[in-house]
Amino acid sequence: MANKSLSSVVILISGSGSNLQSIINNADNIGIKIDCVISNKIDAFGLERAKNAGIATKVIDHTQFATREDFDQNLTQHINTFNPELIILAGFMRILSAKFIDAFAGKILNIHPALLPKFKGLNTHQRAIDAREKFAGASVHFVTNKLDSGEVILQKSVAIEANDDALKLAKKVLEQEHILYPKAIQKVLQR
Ligand code: GRF
After folding, report:
1. Has residue 17 been placed in a domain?
2. Model pLDDT for residues 66-87, shown as the tens digit of each residue
3. Catalytically active residues, by annotation
4. Given the CA of residue 16, which atom of ligand 1 is nearest to it?
5. Residue 122 alpha carbon to ligand 1 centre in Å
6. Structural domain range at position 184
7. Stretch 51-68: mean pLDDT
8. Cα angle at 25 between 24 and 26, to 5 degrees?
9. What mean pLDDT is predicted for residues 125-138?
10. Smallest CA separation from ligand 1 atom 9, residue
11. What is the number of domains present in the chain?
């Protein structure tokens, strides 16, 4: 029987889902129940991870919708069937419409592979190397209508070594993301 003290969450993915895997592995420890993993891509490996963990999955293929708003409306309807406390973006590669974000204000978390407010957007690791930063890192933040600009919940920095290229750095940061995201989720739920 489901434990009523667990917080219900829905996780959105688009790809490999290594952060999803870490959240699955830590779900009991941090007191969450993952009600559904939703992917906008049918071939996202994260869907296999969810299925292997016995978690419900749903594909909502964005290419099947005429507009971003239509896709987001469908996504909203599906999420609402679970009435989750949090919506966790874990490598979800779609910009969400203002309507979607407003509907779930204060409940959407994202992990970004940079030390925000530095390096919002894409190609964060190469940009950090090019800027001769000493540290890269990851940030878990609330999602607002301004890209990668919501309140930061937790961050972890990683030293950039002289021989790091973007790939090496991404790997080091990703390892830290896996530790950081479950902690940040727990922190938000304890507020
Ligand atoms: C991570 O680097 C995360 O910071 C970014 O997308 C990537 C997702 O990786 N938002 P994975 O799908 O969790 O392996």
Report:
1. yes
2. 999 999 999 999 999 999 999 9
3. 112
4. 12
5. 11
6. 113-191
7. 98
8. 90
9. 98
10. 91
11. 2
